[in-house]
């Protein structure tokens, strides 16, 4: 049996980023580069009170916003999410795709998106899914 509170720990490892939580409630996560192929050494994810996520990269002194999530109300039933930049450019869409009555997580990218951004979006998407599945149990 694990004591409470549980210490922050590594919750998942992708090929490029180690994903760890920085708060006990999984509302703040860190993605740390595991290889030289990763463009950013440290990325922080914070979940706001509305449920949307803000993803920042570490600069020399501060963190700057890379993108954020917003609900896609046209896909509310599939928990659709837009991944957009600060100036409103759509980078990816995620949600659940129904295959034979079962919902599977899916993500699609905008055409021409650079590989390092695709890698970061996938790592962020995995972190988001993991965090939400740990903190919320669906009926």
Describe the structure in brief.
The protein is 15% helix and 42% strand.
Structure, explained:
The chain is of the alpha+beta class and 139 residues long. It contains one helix and nine strands. It has a nine-stranded antiparallel beta sheet, with helices on one face. Strand 8 and strand 9 form a beta hairpin. The longest helix has 21 residues. The chain is globular, with a radius of gyration of 15 Å. It starts with 9 loop residues before the first strand and ends with a helix. The N terminus is likely disordered.
Q: Please give the number of β-strands.
A: 9
Model regions low in confidence, pLDDT < 50 over at least 5 residues: 1-13
Q: State the end-to-end distance.
A: 25 Å
Count of separate DSSP helical elements: 1
Task: Summarize the SSE layout with pairings.
Layout: E1 10-13, E2 17-21, E3 28-33, E4 42-47, E5 53-58, E6 63-71, E7 81-84, E8 90-99, E9 102-109, H1 115-135
Antiparallel strand pairs: 1-2, 2-3, 3-4, 4-5, 5-6, 6-7, 7-8, 8-9
Q: How would you describe this structure in keywords?
A:
alpha+beta, nine-stranded antiparallel sheet, 15% helix, globular
């Amino acid at each position: 049996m694990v004591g409470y509170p549980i210490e922050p720990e590594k919750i998942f490892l992708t090929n490029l980023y180690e994903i760890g939580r920085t708060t006990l409630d999984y509302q703040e996560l860190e993605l740390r580069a595991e290889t030289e192929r990763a463009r950013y050494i440290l990325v922080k994810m914070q979940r706001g009170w509305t449920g949307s996520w803000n993803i920042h990269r570490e600069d020399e002194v501060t963190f700057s916003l890379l993108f954020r999530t917003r609900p896609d109300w046209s896909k509310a039933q599939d928990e659709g999410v837009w991944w957009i930049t600060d100036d409103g450019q759509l980078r990816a869409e995620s949600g659940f795709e129904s295959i034979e009555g079962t919902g599977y997580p899916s993500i699609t990218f905008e055409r021409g998106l650079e590989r390092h951004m695709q890698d970061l979006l996938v790592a962020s998407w995995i972190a988001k899914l993991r965090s939400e599945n740990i903190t919320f149990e669906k009926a």
